[in-house]
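#lab-general

N.A. 3:47 PM
ok so I finally got the sequence cleaned up, no stray characters, all 206 residues accounted for. can someone with queue access submit it? mine expired

B.Y. 3:52 PM
send it over

N.A. 3:53 PM
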Amino acid sequence: MPSARRWAVVATGAIILHAVTEMALLAVRFWLYPFLQGLDMARVDAMVAYGTAIGTLRALMIAATILSVVGFLTWQYHVFRLANSLDVSQASPRWAILGWFIPGMNLFKPYQMMRDLWSDLGGEASRARLIRAWWLMGLVTFAVGTGYQLMRSLNEIVHIRTFTLAATNIVHTTLLALATALCIGVVWRIQRQLVQLKAEARHTGI
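B.Y. 4:20 PM
back already:
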């Protein structure tokens, strides 16, 4: 399996696992403990089971997050390098990675590079809306997620209504699921376009 495709599989698999784990964590937080008490389980045993489930899911989510970041960035590097070798893009594969880690620039540079790559690969202009939607959804998801974590931290000092915390958590998880679906669409749309372009180059003997 070519490197780009292999890493596309790794990245999307890890991204899906992260989203599923996030949804499972949401379900455990709100429904597991009451469910166990409904089974007449002892309070201590229910709390131990709840804590074990939360800890396991958090560890799995951390692992999925690391794997998804490594997988996506590695896939992106291979895609840009291949686009360079096909002489359809002059964008630096290294900048495709570094753009994610430079404060301020990471708010727009990765999107610009992905959008330009799609254009360089000959993708339909109308399909570029998917990349824009993915980027905007990602920014909104990040903002809501950051707000939720801040609210949880402040809750120890200033009491925040449980309903507000729960609603924010649900909104964040929903947005994450949408961002995940859009991200997968972007990865595989670019991947298919690149494979098609590579096949055409081979056919014409380039």
